[in-house]
Amino acid sequence: MTVIIRRRERVEMPPAEELQFFATTGKGVEEVLARELVMLGMGNVSQETGGVRFQGDMAACYRANLWLRTANRVLLPLVEFACQNPQELYDGVRTIVWERWLTPELTLAVDCNLRDSAMTHSGFVALKTKDAIVDRLRDHFGRRPSVDTKDPDLRVNVHLVKNRCTLSLDTSGSPLDRRGYRLARTEAPLRETLAAALLELTGWDGTVPLVDPMCGSGTIPIEAALKAGRRAPGLLRQFGFQRWPAFDRTLWQRLLDEAREEALATLPAPIIGSDMSARAVATARENCERAGVDCLIQLAQRELADFTPPPGPGILIVNPPYGQRLGEEEALKPLYRQLGDVMKQRCKGYTAYVFTGSSELAKCVGLKATRRIVLFNGPLECRLLKYDLY
């Protein structure tokens, strides 16, 4: 049973069929993720900074991990309590019925995020949390589980902010951007979850062409094909909850079967990706095949100067390089000017979106953006710029 602790008092959470979850996401993507959760039928969807809370049973947890395109992780909060010193941390962690989630045969890892708190060393907080967990399990089973920081059966998340500690289970395991199709990567690849967020922010629904003339390893076209083809992004991978003692294999298999039945064999409009690099296009082809969407995407090696999309209306979306080292910006200005020329001369009827981390390079496009959306690519503040190409 899950509990919240305040001033050492235990308050019972709702029963298992009414668990609270928190799906994390990148800054600026919260509203997009909230819409995803509503479309999936999740209960009590509530947007917060850095993620979205929702309510449901473990089937909802399984479905969220399988279908969410813009979430980084799905956490199951277990307990919240005031925490200003190591003893309060240890006592709070020990109140949880860890034997429900972990046995001595399984492995454990603890991740810690802390800010503005009396305890300032994340490694020490993680270690103290681990001690409390294994001590309780040793008292219960007579044996303790082992720690595996790289590939644990159960990953515990400690969030300590302003002396309030929230302890959660990571139901996802590895982050949700690791779909399983992108084994080969080009330089500076766009995370899958961010690519999916960009597509959602364009409003593209699959009924008009989508083109990416600088597709790199193919992440944007692949995420577009998964979306338009109704393909669950989690079909190719494993999740943390599959290694938990109470994992319901029958339920999970039913959800997988339903997801596979949802998939479309063809799309109403083309998805086109191209790149000047033969190596990048070869990598994109491999990734498309692994994702099972190679039949839904048209890929070609093509110079930007030679790019011509199908007749509009349509969506052009591109993530050009935006050099982060001294001198790189200047070298990229001709590329951005060429991109602007192609958009003006060959993409009439399209709505174009350029995702860049450089305001100086964006000026070189030579068009006035009708919308600017602030997003973060890792720690780097970026803009998704919208251009209406009449």
UniProtKB/TrEMBL annotation:
Question: Is Lipoprotein found in the keyword set?
Answer: no
Q: Which residues form the THUMP domain?
A: 60-171
Q: Which SMART domains match?
A: THUMP (SM00981)
- CDD domains reported for this sequence: THUMP_AdoMetMT
Identify the keywords attached in UniProt to this record, alphabetized: Methyltransferase, RNA-binding, Transferase
GO biological processes: methylation
Q: GO molecular function of the protein, one example?
A: methyltransferase activity
| Protein name in UniProt | RNA methyltransferase
| Species | Geomobilimonas luticola
Higher taxonomy: Bacteria, Pseudomonadati, Thermodesulfobacteriota, Desulfuromonadia, Geobacterales
